[in-house]
Design brief:
The structure is a single chain. It contains 16 helices and 21 strands. By secondary structure, the chain is an alpha+beta fold. It has a domain at 280-535: Dipeptide-binding Protein, Domain 3 (Dipeptide-binding Protein, domain 3, Roll). The strands form five sheets. Strands 1, 7, 8, 9, 10, 11, 12, 16, 17, 18 and 19 form an eleven-stranded mixed beta sheet that branches.
């Protein structure tokens, strides 16, 4: 049966990195540096990778993905499937059973009520949840008994592993967060900065956008882990300084996301203190085109929805011309070398979901100019195109990073060649990727015309990732500016495909739907303009053992297994 084989094929056993510890905390301190500093320890209030991954040291999901993309049980006794009875025959529900004896770091029992509460927290109608797409199609989450919870869906779900699987949807403690539902969520500072968890570490001090101090969780379920008594998580700076701190000076044990030119990383490795590690997943550097008018003359509600279409990016000819003007192979060469591949896809992997489109890989300045001419965008005396009094003048923003600023400079030059004026803006990554509803500079608010970034989805199935672009999932004031439909794309036909994919078991049809959906976002509408399929590059100290790079989940997924090499 295709449904059952799909369900069985999604699950595999995982052999964790071997480590044998004499006792918990015997290896002293481990230090981690993320040049994008965490601003919150609650992934439900931030879609930033820095916040999701730092949170994963403390709070955990029922299951997650290993380094091969296979699902493995964490807080759950096992991954539910049709074969073991955890997933109903009609695929309309999934039942999870917690491991017995689990306790929170405060010593209280972990129960199914905590799991249900987590769903209620994210799905609250008056709140804003950065991970709401993970709960797409969920109609109820019900407690069966203290260790068992049942998730029901509005239709058959061949892939029912959206909620509670992966670092993006961990379980939070009901007792700690029960007064933080809905609009109250962003104001619960103590909870958001110091969640009580089941993970290997406990927060002792959190200075947003700076440093987090942690200690080993005395109640962690494996009595011999973690090997480290304390953990220092430093945020800020830049990728260059982070790489040097591990591979040249040995000041830190692990550096994340070394978004640096390949020759720079090779030179750092010569320092002899650390080793770069890399792997490809589905991390795509891309441009997001704002489909709404970001003018500060408009109120926040209008700027956040399609009530006022963008004055010139609402013209597909403009969006397509901007894409045609870009030399993607050159961006790869100067920015990533072997750790990057030019792409026209938002989801380049797994291969069954990749469109294989190569139309964007050849720069076409002449064609872009001809397209804008035909569309009626004419050059003025200053060389900048305009139509009906609207100038093609773009505010192009991204986070502060040497590679991204190189990309901005090149793209500005190319856009200038087609008559587009470009103002560049770069923002502190901790702010840009943060979830502060009061900040005007977050990627979610998107108070610019074009912005550039990369993100990734848990596991190997892009269903929830693509569902983020459902109509109505845009960040807005009433959702405390949470939501993953950053560019405010909306197409009812796309939404129908989301629903069909959610109920489709045939893997070939799922692949076809995935390809059709990402084509709608990219080469059909140019709402998203992919640039580079990026490999994940981090580095660890030569004295740090047990590290297993994971491109399908949090890079810190197995930190409990890290240890010091003598």
């Amino acid at each position: 049966m295709k449904i059952k084989s799909l369900m069985m094929g999604a699950v595999a056993a995982c052999a964790f990195a071997p480590a044998s510890f004499a006792e918990r905390g015997s290896d002293g301190n481990v230090s981690i540096i993320y040049w994008q500093a965490p601003s919150i320890l609650n992934p439900y209030l931030s879609g930033g990778t820095k916040d999701i991954e730092s949170s994963s040291l403390v709070i955990e999901p029922l299951g997650r993905f290993d380094e091969t993309g296979a699902m493995v049980a964490f807080l759950a006794e096992e991954i539910p499937t049709v074969a073991n009875g955890g997933v109903s025959e009609d695929l309309t529900s999934i039942t999870w059973t917690l491991k017995s004896g689990l306790v929170w770091s405060d010593g209280s029992a972990v129960t199914a009520a905590d799991v249900k509460f987590t769903a209620d927290y994210c799905m609250h109608p008056e709140g804003g949840c950065a991970q709401l797409a993970k709960f797409d199609g969920v109609t109820s989450v019900d407690v069966v008994d203290d260790l068992t919870v049942k998730v029901s869906f509005n239709q058959p779900k061949p892939n029912p592993y959206g909620p509670f699987v992966g670092g993006q949807t961990p379980i939070i403690q009901k007792a700690q967060f029960e007064n933080c539902l809905g609009a109250a969520a962003p104001n619960c500072t103590d909870q958001n900065f110091g969640p009580i968890g089941t993970g290997p570490f406990v927060v002792t001090e959190f200075r947003p956008n700076d440093v987090i101090q942690m200690k080993a969780n005395d109640n962690y379920r494996d009595a011999s882990k973690p090997a480290f008594a304390t953990l220092t998580f430093k945020g800020g700076g830049d990728a260059m300084a982070a790489g040097r701190a591990v591979m040249e000076t040995g000041e830190f044990d692990y550096a994340w996301n070394l978004q640096l030119a390949p020759d720079v990383i090779a030179k750092m490795k010569e320092g002899g203190k650390g080793t770069p590690i890399s792997g490809f997943g589905a991390l795509v550097e891309r441009l997001e085109m704002n489909m709404t008018n970001p003018s500060p003359d408009l109120d926040a509600d209008t700027r956040s929805t399609r009530k006022a279409p963008h004055p010139f990016l609402s013209d597909i000819n403009v969006r397509k011309a901007l894409s045609m003007a870009i030399d993607r192979p050159l961006l790869v060469e100067i920015g990533y070398g072997p750790a990057g591949r030019p792409t026209c896809d938002l989801v380049p992997a797994p291969a069954i979901y990749a469109t294989g489109n190569t139309d964007c890989l050849t720069q076409d300045i002449t064609g872009a100019n001809a397209l804008l001419d035909e569309a009626g965008w004419t050059r003025g005396g200053d060389g900048i195109r305009a139509k009906d009094g609207v100038r093609l003048s773009i505010l192009y923003q991204t986070s502060t990073n040497a590679v991204r600023q190189d990309f901005q400079a090149l793209i500005k030059e190319w856009w200038g060649q087609i008559g587009v004026e470009t103002e560049l803006r770069n923002l502190n990554a901790s702010v840009f990727f943060g979830g502060d509803p009061g900040s005007p500079d977050t990627s979610q608010k998107f108070y610019a015309d074009v912005e550039m970034y990369a993100n990734v989805f848990d596991g190997t199935d892009p269903q929830a990732y693509l569902a983020a672009y459902r109509c109505g999932n845009e960040p807005k004031p009433e959702s405390q500016w949470q939501g993953e439909n950053i560019n405010r794309f909306c197409d009812p036909e796309y939404d129908k495909m989301i629903d069909e994919m959610a109920r489709t078991s045939d893997i070939n049809r799922r692949g076809e739907l995935g390809r059709m959906m990402q084509s709608m976002l990219t080469n059909q509408s140019y709402t998203i303009v992919p640039l580079v399929d990026r490999g994940r590059i981090s580095a660890h100290a030569n004295s740090l053992g047990g590290v297993v790079l994971n491109t399908f989940d949090s890079e810190l997924w197995n930190v409990a297994d890290w240890y010091r090499i003598d």
